[in-house]
Q: What sequence folds into this?
């Protein structure tokens, strides 16, 4: 009579099945990790794209600046552990926000310290790209203190978004010549350098003396004018009886956004990061900013913390999908025409040769307003204007069944954590299955070890008894 399957054998079979199935399915369904060259540029040439790669989280190594030339990587500069926004200057050099450690010039902080600011990289300085200039300042620590964005100004100088002191300032000739402090509008803590207060992560020049600023932790964009201060707020606080979210701006409109792009008066494109979507907001006749175009994913993969979106002159959108570790160019309806997979956390991308970031058309200009699903088709939920995501699809399928609450909170948390630790080619839930399988095998191994020790102990005790009875 054949022996029954023991508990240990069942654990081995279950663990192996989890590992084989999830890793096999994950590999089979993994997107290609190569550059496609189906995208178009203004002059019809093969697209060239700059990518700033943050690396494995904010506090680990692995950052780089990369130039993608057609279907391959042209060059890479990785002397700083963390890079952020990247811009090609008129002379062909590259401007990049960065953070690095090991400095002795630390101002009020103990040496050695971290400094943040911007670097200028010369791709043709030698056999490899070389940092030829740096402007930086010391920070208390490297947690949420980085310069995420720096932009060149006409006639020289740079405008910088400073998260350490929560301000925007202009550097000319190596000196700060103008600054706007967020404490002039927002209620500040005693010392902004001791906490991640507003997390000002982006600034763009949108006119003479006018800047668009992303105030991430307030869920707001503000328009600054030199000499005037804040002249407009996108996603302003309602500040009335209906305002019960505890945040400055409505998180359903913008939630911890990055890298907004001004598309002209009355339209802005935003990487709405923690809503896991890209959204184009338009100002209505009442002065309220509302979503006019929403994209939540592409090629069957929902966005995971996108942190940059640029409207290109051809009407497509270049999106940095950070925790899916990819940069993609999509049509107005979400079809991918170009993609690149950058290992671990790309932050921002710029398509070279497309001119100023503000010259792309709005979706209204192209007749493509609406909300699009991850397969490129319109998916409006009646009465909400929102797109049909996985969670809402499940809720619609099981109408009347309470599935929200802890289960969906766990799902959202898991999806946000795993991209930093899972392989690039494996989805979050495939990784969960593999992790479960591995844990089952570890549990079996521990149980076998404990059982073996118990058997050895019993054998020793029997031997001692046998000796005593002789």
A:
């Amino acid at each position: 009579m054949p022996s029954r399957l023991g508990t240990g054998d069942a654990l081995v079979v279950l663990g192996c099945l989890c590992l084989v199935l999830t890793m096999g399915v994950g590999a089979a369904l993994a997107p290609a990790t190569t550059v496609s060259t189906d995208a178009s540029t203004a002059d019809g040439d093969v697209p060239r794209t700059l990518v700033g790669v943050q690396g494995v989280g904010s506090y680990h190594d692995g950052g780089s600046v990369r130039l993608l030339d057609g279907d391959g990587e042209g060059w890479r500069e990785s002397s700083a552990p963390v890079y952020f926004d990247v811009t090609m200057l008129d002379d062909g050099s590259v401007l990049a926000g960065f953070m690095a450690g090991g400095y002795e010039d630390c101002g009020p902080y103990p040496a050695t310290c971290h400094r943040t600011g911007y670097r200028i990289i010369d791709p043709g300085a030698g056999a490899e790209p070389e940092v030829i200039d740096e402007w930086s300042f010391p920070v208390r620590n490297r947690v949420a203190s980085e310069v995420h964005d720096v932009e060149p100004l006409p006639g020289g100088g740079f405008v910088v978004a400073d998260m350490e002191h929560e301000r925007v300032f202009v550097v000319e000739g190596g000196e700060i010549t103008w600054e706007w402090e967020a404490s002039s509008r927002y209620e500040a803590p005693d010392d902004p350098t001791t906490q991640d207060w507003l997390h000002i992560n982006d600034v763009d020049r949108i006119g003479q003396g006018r800047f668009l600023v992303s105030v991430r932790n307030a869920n707001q964009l503000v328009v600054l004018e030199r000499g005037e201060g804040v002249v407009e707020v996108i996603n302003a606080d309602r500040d009335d009886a209906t305002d019960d979210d505890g945040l400055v701006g409505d998180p359903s409109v913008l939630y911890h956004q990055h890298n907004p792009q001004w598309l002209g008066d009355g339209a802005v494109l935003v990487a709405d990061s923690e809503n896991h979507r890209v959204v184009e907001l338009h100002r209505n006749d009442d002065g309220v900013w509302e979503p006019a175009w929403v994209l939540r994913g592409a090629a069957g993969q929902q966005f995971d913390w996108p942190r940059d979106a640029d409207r290109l002159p051809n009407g497509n959108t270049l999106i940095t999908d950070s925790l899916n570790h990819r940069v993609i160019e999509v049509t107005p309806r979400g079809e991918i025409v170009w993609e690149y997979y950058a290992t671990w956390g790309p932050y921002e991308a710029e398509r070279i040769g497309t001119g100023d970031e503000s010259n792309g058309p709005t979706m209204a200009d192209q007749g493509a307003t609406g909300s699009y699903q991850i397969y490129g088709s319109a998916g409006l939920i009646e009465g909400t204007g929102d797109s049909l995501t996985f969670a809402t699809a499940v809720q619609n399928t099981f109408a009347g069944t309470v599935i929200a609450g802890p289960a969906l909170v766990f799902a959202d948390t898991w999806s946000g954590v795993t991209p930093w630790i899972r392989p690039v080619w494996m989805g979050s839930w495939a990784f969960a299955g593999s992790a479960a399988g591995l844990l089952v095998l570890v549990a079996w191994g521990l149980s076998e070890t404990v059982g073996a020790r118990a058997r050895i102990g019993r054998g020793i005790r029997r031997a001692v008894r046998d000796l005593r009875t002789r």
Observations:
- The radius of gyration is 26 Å.
- The longest helix spans residues 428-469.
